[in-house]
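Box S1 | Example of a co-folding query
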Amino acid sequence: MGLVLGIESSCDETAAALVTSDRRILAQRIASQDDEHRPYGGVVPEIAARAHSERLTPLIAATLADAGLGLDAVDAIAATAGPGLIGGVMVGLVTAKALALAAHKPLIAINHLEGHALSPRLADPELQFPYLLLLVSGGHCQILMVEGVGRYRRLATTIDDALGEAFDKTAKILGLGYPGGPAVERLARAGNAKAVALPRPLLGTAEPHFSFAGLKSAVLRAKQTALHADADIAAAFQQAAIDCVIDRSRRALQSADMPTALVVAGGVAANQAMRRALEALAGEFGLPFVAPPLALCTDNAAMIAWAGIERLGQNDPLDCAARPRWPLDPDAAPARGAGVKA
Ligand code: KG4
Ligand code: ZN
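Box S1 (continued) | Returned holo structure for KG4
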């Protein structure tokens, strides 16, 4: 049986976890920085890096203590090496390198997006390759065919904002504070989605790409008219976003070789209304729908440790680089549009 220590520090969560090859999370700790970033309405990279450097080492010590284990018990140390805010990534990766050197353990440099992409396999032992993955987080919005560990075919990406970013900006416009996704979802429950007409960018286009910048601007205009209740705007925004996600995912399912399952991962996968809509879509195609539990959707170290389990045997050099950008599918053609994001 394998045991991996995972470290995550690419955004605003400082996290460590111990995960076994038989899918047990022996211990995990997450220190959120919401309080530090809230006054600024979003993550401030410099503040994030400083917070990671203060918290990460004691957090790892506490995680090992929770499991009653020392570093000698682990088979490898896996850390997010990108993509993400580079200061935070460097803190996590350098810490992992130092631990690997001191404890004579292999270092496994993990792509944070691969952590999200493989996290459904930690939660569900039945999930087999290839599966169609909707990866929706604060920084990314992609549809990928996950063909195996390290084998990802990107079918779609966003030409402007990520979906989580759109939720966060909507929250800011509505004065809901940071982080925005859960607050928008809560307010949307009290609203009428039909009360505000909002656009569905790229709906029906042949390639299953995403665009959310126009939707965000429409939310801003709806708010500025002062004609609508905030709850109605939140509900209308969430419904428009879900309609886009469902249309784009349906298009991907129609164009791809049939996968074993429709899977969603990343922070926005915590959204219950979107999960229900995706479950219905999977049903249309006779596919199982797999979504990790909420704690595995938002950033965490268990998914990084699990990616390390999937990659046991790998030993990255101690001079491997922290990478601000690191596409899962380097061969994917860029999407059309002005502000293309990986
Ligand atoms: O995966 P994640 O924790 O961090 C990144 O790698 O980006 O995703 C965070 C994103 C944020 O934009 C947050 O607003 C969004 O996920 N999010 C949600 C919900 N919970 C988190 N969006 C919509 N509904 C939610 N319930
Ligand atoms: Zn993430």
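Residues 112, 116, 137, 266, 299 surround zinc ion (ligand 2) (CB under 6 Å). The domain at 129-291 is CATH 3.30.420.40 (Nucleotidyltransferase; domain 5).
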